[in-house]
Amino acid sequence: MRTSKFVGLVVTAAMAVAITAAAQTGKKPKVVIVATGGTIAGAAPSQTEAGYQSGAVGVDVLIQAVPQLKDVAEVSGEQIASIGSQDMNDEVWLKLAKRVNAILAQSDVSGVAITHGTDTMEETSYFLNLVVKSDKPVVLTGSMRPSTAMSADGPLNIYNAVAIAADPEAKGRGVLVTVDDDIHSGHDIIKTHSTDVGTMSSGEAGLIGATLFGKNTWYRHPENIHTSKSEFRIDNVNTLPRVDIIYAHANMSPDLIKAAVTNGAKGIVMAGVGDGNMTAPSVEALKAAIAKGVVVVRSSRTNGGIIRRNIELNDDQLGTVAAMELVPGKARVLLQLALLKTKDAKTIQGYFDRY
After folding, report:
1. In CATH terms, are 3-229 and 243-354 the same topology?
2. Residue extents of the structural domains in the chain
3. Could you list the active site residues?
4. Radius of gyration (Cα) for the chain, nearest Å?
5. Sheet containing 74-83: which strands, arranged edge to edge?
6. What is the pLDDT of residues 44-91, one digit of tens each?
7. pTM for the predicted model, two decimal places
8. Can you tell me the distance from the alpha carbon of 95 to that of 156, in angstroms, rounded to the nearest whole number?
9. Residue 54: its pLDDT value, please?
10. CATH top class, domain 3-229
């Protein structure tokens, strides 16, 4: 047996012993809620107002609004940010990831739940999926209605997130997202509707599981590399490379590609039409960008399917990277982290194949 596998078995056994001991003493799992703002912490002038202010409610208020949390876990809260997720940025990502890793390193903590806006939840969850260094559960949740709304969806989502974070069966499944009674992988989840409560989807990959008032059913483990097995680390990282996403369309001009390069982009993700394609002038602009050392990834604006190498365009000749199943926002996240390690397109393609 390899040493790494042996160590993994020992750690798993130790965690199982700790869980059993906690159950025997009647002690509940310890879950830390880390709040970043978002609609789930939003406030509106009335229960039927469509407009609201994101991040207006603090984590303590969110916890107090769900007194049933004490039935499933010993819960505490921390406020990392108070922003709408449209304003999520690299600085907050790094701060959040480092804090989550520090919390999970505490032996008495069972898991972490994160409240977050839905607009960029798919990107934050995937970023954490790549840089969290623990098999303990990390569960993001949010809401489509502010905390003050009639029939707000946030409280039950928080309850379910804590219940999942406290569930031993959630361990080793990577970073998870729960909304609307579904459990998604951070690798797969995308937002599909601007206002619908049922906005989140895992597409062809399918759900990781389902939850019903904190009772969880598990369907699968993710196949991609994640969390404790990931080779990406941000311990000593304070900034991430600039990577721009450019949206392809009919009669697309190459001007935005040139502007991205001029303004310092180290990488470009093309949200291509169909199977990651774009106009001929844009392809020529990408060739020029690659010649200047910019790494280019081909994804698709369709939000579905797999962008494989050398189908619409000859990636081998162009020097481009195929995004595989990653949508543009997630492809950008992986490219940012990959650029911390290398600018070699072949090596980066390997990351997209595995992660």
Report:
1. yes
2. 3-229, 243-354
3. 39
4. 21
5. 74-83, 30-37, 111-115, 138-141, 176-179, 182-185, 209-212, 215-218
6. 777 877 777 777 889 999 999 999 999 999 999 999 999 999 999 999
7. 0.90
8. 27
9. 73
10. alpha beta
